[in-house]
DNA sequence: CGACCCCTTGAGACCTATCAACACAAGTGG
DNA sequence: CCACTTGTGTTGATAGGTCTCAAGGGGTCG
């Protein structure tokens, strides 16, 4: 699994020594076996229609191929830290990522989870406002922000897609702010599970038995609760038949409408 | 103050009958007296360096002038509602705007305040994810999103500035999510006041005696607390000398560092 | 002057956090 | 193979921060 090269990439990134030098498969920092290369538009991944470059003109795809590269990480690896100079955006090819902010006393708030097809790390002449960490073994497609920006000057389609992703992210934030500011513990957990389910559906995975890539602590730090409250709430949901827990890391939603009702207090 | 035309614009916008037809000063829907026109790059406002079009090439500014128009609203007027088709972005020329989401049972979460120079309403082929309402008498510069997008294909500077605004907004959201998910009541109020102060400073206003354009209820709905808690907290801050309240709507910050310490629990 | 709105203050209730303990699975090393 | 450790999830008892409910003060405006 190209373990050693993945380590090199991780160290490079985690140490803040990210340069603007272009890298691509074959580069010592991010070697990707030929077998790992997918059948997507750019040949870097197999995201299909989820790929950032899906549907772009061949010329554009070619340009993107030159500047992007695939990187691999293990769970708990740090991709970049809050305060690092932001030089690239990432597309998740496989696995899951969490991004979070820390307070001086150690309190943590996870501000987002990213799965296959999701894009994160937007940053324009400035530092990353958060830390990004692999939740599971991870494969990401890395695009230098500057190059992406330059490319978008001649390829409006690229620019439009970036704007689409960012507006979608902004809308997500509005929802999450509502969750954190005004929802009860039950509503938060229900909303979280529904959102996971909906996102799974949108990327073509089954909407109901959903795998929980993250642990209870991460869920708690995302919805602004404690582990205990999350655990108690999920147990309560199971007792009430709102969800099923075949294993601690798998959630089935027998009745979406019922869970939805629990997610905004209309239950 | 062009009351009747402002009413017309409001009704048009609030009723969801926003069209993509270009409008400009002189248009019956958005008449702006000549005296109201500023000395900014486009002649629509006097935002100076805060203006969206500041620093753009003359050709770009001219293009922008053709598609943008200035609108006026009174406090409590609704600019657009959650679910309305998103067709335009707005720049605040004077006054303040709040955007919020409502839950079925009436709970409200304000997700943002916007002041002079701030831009809001980003929306690409989709509906607004929130409602926008004037907090004070308001003057905004309206730019059709579609036109802005078209223009940005030939004027990369426009596109870059949009990206800048959106990444800045994303960073703000990360901070606000941390506030809502992990901060105590004291920390929330302190953070809020500091952010107001900082934003005032950045747009060239004094950082310390800051006017509170919004009431306690709005503050509470923004920081995820109740009015009572906000009021109690501010009273406590005043008692402790962290802030001064010459009037309920004016806050002086004698010691920024002390308030900052209170904003992240390092006090 | 009275109605209304906003802000403030007080007392008690409630939801969630905190602290503590236990179950269970997966390593790890003797 | 077992003892031990570690990590994760669950459950219980208690405490505490914030909400809820209630009332009063001060300003504005008709």
Give the structure's gist in a few sentences.
Chain A is of the alpha+beta class and about 270 residues long. Chain A has helices spanning about 5-15, 60-65, 145-155, 155-180, 185-200, 215-225, 225-240, 255-265, and strands at about 70-75, 80, 90-95, 95-100, 110-115, 120, 130-135, 140-145, 210, 245, 250. Chain A has eight helices and eleven strands.
Describe this structure as you would to a colleague.
Two copies of one chain form a homodimer. Chain A has about 270 residues and is an alpha+beta fold. The first copy, chain A, has two domains: about 5-170, Jelly Rolls (Sandwich), CATH 2.60.120.10; about 185-265, Arc Repressor Mutant, subunit A (Orthogonal Bundle). Chain A is built from eight helices and eleven strands. The first copy, chain A, has helices spanning about 5-15, 60-65, 145-155, 155-180, 185-200, 215-225, 225-240, 255-265; strands at about 70-75, 80, 90-95, 95-100, 110-115, 120, 130-135, 140-145, 210, 245, 250. A four-stranded antiparallel β-sheet of chain A has the order 1-8-3-6. In chain A, helix 3 packs across helix 4 (about 155-180) and helix 6 crosses helix 7. The longest helix of chain A has 27 residues, at about 155-180. Chain A starts with a helix and ends with a helix. At the A-B interface, strand 5, helix 3, helix 4 and helix 6 of A face strand 5, helix 3, helix 4 and helix 6 of B.
């Amino acid at each position: 699994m190209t373990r050693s090269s993945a380590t090199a990439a991780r160290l490079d990134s985690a140490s803040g020594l990210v340069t603007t030098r272009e890298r691509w498969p074959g580069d010592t920092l991010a070697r990707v076996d030929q077998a790992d290369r997918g059948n997507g538009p750019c040949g870097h991944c197999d995201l299909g229609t989820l790929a950032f470059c899906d549907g772009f003109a061949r010329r554009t795809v070619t340009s993107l191929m030159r500047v992007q590269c695939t990187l691999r990480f293990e769970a708990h690896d740090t991709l970049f830290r809050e305060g690092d100079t932001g030089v690239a955006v990432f597309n998740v090819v496989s696995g899951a990522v969490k991004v979070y902010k820390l307070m001086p006393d150690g309190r943590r708030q996870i501000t987002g989870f990213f799965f296959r097809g999701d894009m994160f790390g937007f940053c324009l002449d400035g530092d990353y406002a958060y830390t990004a960490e692999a939740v599971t073994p991870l494969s990401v497609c890395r695009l230098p922000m500057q190059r992406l920006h330059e490319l978008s000057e001649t390829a409006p389609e690229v620019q439009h897609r970036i704007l689409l992703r960012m507006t979608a992210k902004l809308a997500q934030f509005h929802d999450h702010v509502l969750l954190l500011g005004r929802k009860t513990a039950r509503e938060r957990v229900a909303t979280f599970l529904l959102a996971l389910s909906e996102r799974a559906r949108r990327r073509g995975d089954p909407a109901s038995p959903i795998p929980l890539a993250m642990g209870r602590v991460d869920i708690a730090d995302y919805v602004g609760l404690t582990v205990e409250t999350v655990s108690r709430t999920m147990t309560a949901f199971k007792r009430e038949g709102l969800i099923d827990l075949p294993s601690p890391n798998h959630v089935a939603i027998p009745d979406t409408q019922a869970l939805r009702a629990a997610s905004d207090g209309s239950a």
